[in-house]
Design goal:
This protein has eight helices and no strands. With about 290 residues, the chain is an all-alpha fold. It has two domains: about 80 residues, Helix Hairpins (Orthogonal Bundle); about 180 residues, Up-down Bundle (Four Helix Bundle (Hemerythrin (Met), subunit A)). The relative contact order is 0.12.
Length: about 290
């Protein structure tokens, strides 16, 4: 919500029709097609990828500008504020289900599929028919040594450092929120930039981790079930950290322009909810992907 939210309006604000949702969907489709070309077919400079990224950024900027203009123009009331809160809550719930599916895939592969394929319990016949030499070991690159042998990334190296970084970012974001509610804008802005910096440092270390995995450990997307689940979970989480960092930058710039008040700042709160969600997901990743 804006610092100029008009709580006195009796009518619910309905925005005018916009082509931005359709345009952003089309842009993201081009982005995904280009990403597939890059990953599956080895194209180093896929045109569709860069076109999709560029158009998506333009659509996002235009959409943000439109919402900020509406908010600062006093078009939102308390009912709109409640709608945003419900919408953000359901969005984060959908993200919980999204990551839940991938955590479920990790659990199924490790706790159910591997014992079944190795013949444990009453599955000896299945083991003998499918892969007589298959053993229940984790991490597993599957039958036939798919992708070759590889090494895993130690939990108490970069992953642990990144855990401390994200936990610290949650603290600085909370400090910023309390500072905003106490009308300490400078303190709030400084704490927000600290949060942005920590998010960027996290992403830097994750890129370093991926480079090390591919170049030195032979841990790739092709490294059987472990490699696919590892990069699926950590990669999607990294994408969410990237999005969250961009959102934090937008909110910080708005704070510097004087937006938000101690009593009306849901735009800030919504991003804070999202960032704390990202923190919690990482804790699950750290435990179930790196440690256990």
């Amino acid at each position: 919500m804006s610092s100029h939210a008009a709580t006195h309006h009796d009518h619910y604000f309905v925005p005018s029709p916009s082509p931005l949702p359709f345009a952003l969907t089309a842009s993201l489709t081009l982005f995904v097609i280009g990403l597939i070309q890059m990953i599956e077919y080895g194209q180093s400079m896929p045109v569709l990828f860069f076109v999709g990224v560029g158009l998506s950024l333009i659509c996002i900027y235009a959409w943000f500008w439109k919402i900020v203009t509406e908010a600062e123009g006093g078009k939102y009331n308390a009912q709109v504020d409640m709608t945003y809160r419900w919408g953000m809550g359901w969005f984060i719930f959908s993200e919980v289900m999204f990551f839940g599916a991938f955590f479920g895939a990790l659990y199924y592969a490790r706790a159910l599929s591997l014992p079944w394929l190795s013949g444990e319990g009453n599955n000896l016949s299945t083991h003998l028919v499918l892969w007589p030499g298959f053993e229940n070991t984790w991490p597993s690159n599957g039958p036939g040594d798919i992708g070759g042998s590889f090494q895993t990334i130690p939990a108490w190296d970069i992953p642990f450092i990144n855990t401390l970084i994200l936990l610290t970012s949650g603290v600085t974001l909370t400090i910023a929120h309390h500072a905003l509610k106490e009308s300490q804008r400078l303190k709030c802005i400084l704490a927000m930039w600290a949060t942005v910096a920590l998010g960027a440092i996290f992403l830097f270390y994750q890129v370093e981790e991926y480079i090390h995995a591919y170049q030195d450990l032979n841990l790739t997307l092709g490294s059987g079930i472990y490699g696919s689940t590892f990069f699926m979970l950590t990669g999607f989480h990294g994408a969410h950290v990237t999005l969250g960092t961009l959102m934090l930058i937008v909110i910080t710039l708005r704070l510097m322009k004087g937006h938000f008040t101690p009593d009306s700042h849901f735009g800030f709160e919504g991003v804070a909810w999202y960032w704390h969600f990202v923190d919690v997901v990482w804790l699950g990743l750290f435990v179930f992907v790196y440690v256990v």
